[in-house]
Structures are given as structure tokens and as C-alpha cells.
Design brief:
Layout: E1 37-39, E2 43-47, E3 54-58, E4 62-64, H1 73-97, H2 103-111, H3 114-142
Antiparallel strand pairs: 1-4, 2-3
Length: about 140
């Protein structure tokens, strides 16, 4: 936008620019939409009629914040959908693969595992050693 106007000497000029905040299309937002949009600084050129010199002034840039939609919404929908699907898949997989066993069958199977046999062997060895130790103590007290 360019304005050309003649301003008398020793006068004040105020220029304002109205804008309407509106939502942009999805692809029109910059990568960091929450940061806002940079409005370029204005360049004011003053022409001196007597000496034909040009003086230029630059204003500061402006950060314009527009209303931004919640861009995390698609991410939230994907995460929620994947969570529900994984829970459904896990449940169906367990129902199809795992064998249903009663408590009595489980206790019988658990008693016959290699680990259970090893535990029983260690316990019996410890009890035998304790029995031998007590027998040694009793024989020593009798003597």
C-alpha cells in the first residue's frame, strides 16, 4: 500500500490502518502460528521541494496475533483412536490365544514345573542340614 500526500510544514499527521481479525485457511498459517504474523515496517519518504533531497524514515515492525485454531486436535484424535484400537486388539488377542485353566489345574501344573521341583529340592536339603545340625548339637550336649 502506498500513500502520496502533501503535508504543510510544522503540521502533524497520524495514519492508522484498520484490519479485520479472521481465521485463515489451514495451509496459510506459518509453522509457528501462535507466534503471530510479522507486519513489515513502514517506510516514510519526505521530499524536500527546495533542495530536492529525499529523507527516509522507517517505523518498527509489528507482531500481529490472529485467532489460531487448535492445531493439536488431529494429533489428539490419532492418539485416542490408536489407544482404543490397541486395547481392543489386545483383548481379542488374549481371548483367542490364551488357554482357559481352572484354579485347581493351575496349582497342579505349577507344582510340577522345573522351578517348583528345584525349590522343593533346596528346601529338603536345607531341612536335612538343619536336622543334622540339631543332631550334632544333641550329641555334643550328651557328651
Amino acid at each position: 500500500m502506498e500513500l502520496i500526500m502533501e503535508v504543510p510544514a510544522k503540521s502533524t499527521l497520524a495514519i492508522s490502518y484498520d484490519f479485520d481479525k479472521s481465521l485463515l485457511l489451514y495451509r496459510e498459517y506459518p509453522p509457528d502460528a501462535n507466534h503471530g504474523f510479522d507486519v513489515e515496517p513502514a517506510v516514510i519518504s519526505v521530499f524536500d521541494k527546495d533542495s530536492e533531497k529525499v529523507y527516509e524514515f522507517r517505523t518498527t515492525s509489528l507482531l500481529l496475533t490472529l485467532p489460531t485454531p487448535d492445531f493439536s486436535m488431529p494429533y489428539n484424535v490419532i492418539i485416542m483412536t490408536c489407544t482404543v484400537l490397541s486395547m481392543v486388539f489386545g483383548t481379542i488377542f488374549n481371548l483367542l490365544i490364551k488357554k482357559v485353566v481352572t484354579e485347581e489345574e493351575f496349582e497342579e501344573i505349577a507344582a510340577n514345573t522345573k522351578l517348583a521341583k528345584l525349590k522343593r529340592g533346596i528346601k529338603s536339603t536345607i531341612q536335612q542340614l538343619k536336622g543334622q545340625k540339631q543332631a550334632n548339637i544333641q550329641t555334643q550336649t550328651k557328651q
